[in-house]
Amino acid sequence: MAIATVNPATGETLKTFDALNAGEIEDRLVRADQAFQEHRTTTFARRAGLLHTAADLLEADLDGIARTMTTEMGKPLAQARAEAAKCVKAMRWYADHAEELLADEQPDPADVSDSGAIRAVVRYRPIGTVLAVMPWNFPLWQVVRFAAPALMAGNTGLLKHASNVPQTALYLEELFRRAGYPEGCFQTLLVGAAAIEEILRDPRIAAATLTGSEPAGRSVAAIAGDEVKKTVLELGGSDPYLVLPSADLDKAARVAVTARVQNNGQSCIAAKRFIVHQDVHDAFCERFTARMAALTVGDPMDEHTDIGPLASEQGRSDLEELVDDAVHQGARALCGGRRPPEHRAGWFYEPTVLTGITPSMRIHREETFGPVATLYRVADLDEAIALANDTPFGLGSNAWTRDAGEQARLARDMQAGGVFFNGMTASHPGLPFGGAKRSGYGRELSGHGIREFCNITTLWYGPEE
């Protein structure tokens, strides 16, 4: 895939970039390793000052970088601004909390006295340069939620971003440089996917983190495993959205629309499968479908647009194949199900609600990356849970119920990295984020995320005789 900015609202190629050659990659690896030797010894106060400066600079750049993201991958401009603002929040959160999250732990001497120690300390130390392989759908947030904790832990970072968001990737490198980070502390690698293996195998790379597709995750995990290097993977999702009889139906339907079409429906944690109890199915369906059909599809730079184009022509084709397969096998589109005829240029797709889904349909098992919702009717809580878990993925999940017993049951039995009750799945700097099953492993964000790329070191002190 060419490294280029292609406006998905028009299909026009705006700017192309040459991939780095072997010598240029080597230069960046050298700089990253040298920067680590300096950065790892800095104080938390110094690191926090740098990250706060980066946050201030990003906040000042909010509108400009939002327009860059919208131009490169098509999300509505208001959502791009919100993404950038969320990055500012996360930077400040880690700048303010990293020192306490990585503070030394001292076991009670009585608990380890039989080891012969008079004192023991557990210390979190940086591990080196981390390679980040990141996707286009949240081109700023996906990177910052790795970079902020990694840099605060004393690591350095190399970013291999998606090839269709090169200007956003270069902006990030420049942002950290302007903030005063040592040269090489955070660098962008404009390279294709074929270059990842050699970079990851380089001994100067200590670990890798990837957000993306399941095949990409398998590939990176296999290479890293062969090299015995730590990885964190956040892969696909087919998140369920359960609506049970005690739910506030108006609120559940309103939030359901946002949960499905945020980021033009291109989010791993977007709600995709709407599983509704038969007692409230028809009422929810009516509300949900009406709201989906009323959404405005159009120019993502227009402040009144709800849904912009999909990020790539291939992405739209993949989505169409899933919808067409389902319809040909008997599913019914309650709204949408086609390219909007008024938008012939660009990669637009109408907000769609499908019902009558059966297990033989591809859409029942595969992730839909676009504004397409599948609607299911279930008889009871047992059937709802079974259907929710009937997926190879396990990233997030939503459940709308005010019944405490149902909430307890769902908290115990849902196979996902998160269960959100009466609200939409979202990520927050203070809460761990990650999945189960084929949605990946490891955690980002919170204290769990910053410790993923630390050498958890035991310091043992014997008696001085």
From TrEMBL:
Cite the Aldehyde dehydrogenase domain residue spans from the record: 3-458
Q: Which SUPFAM superfamilies match?
A: ALDH-like
Q: Name the keywords, alphabetized.
A: NADP, Oxidoreductase
Q: Which CDD domains match?
A: ALDH_SSADH1_GabD1 (cd07100)
Q: Which Pfam families match?
A: Aldedh
Domain of life the protein comes from: Bacteria
The record's family statement is: Belongs to the aldehyde dehydrogenase family.
Q: What is this protein called?
A: NADP-dependent succinic semialdehyde dehydrogenase
Give the organism the record lists: Streptomyces albospinus
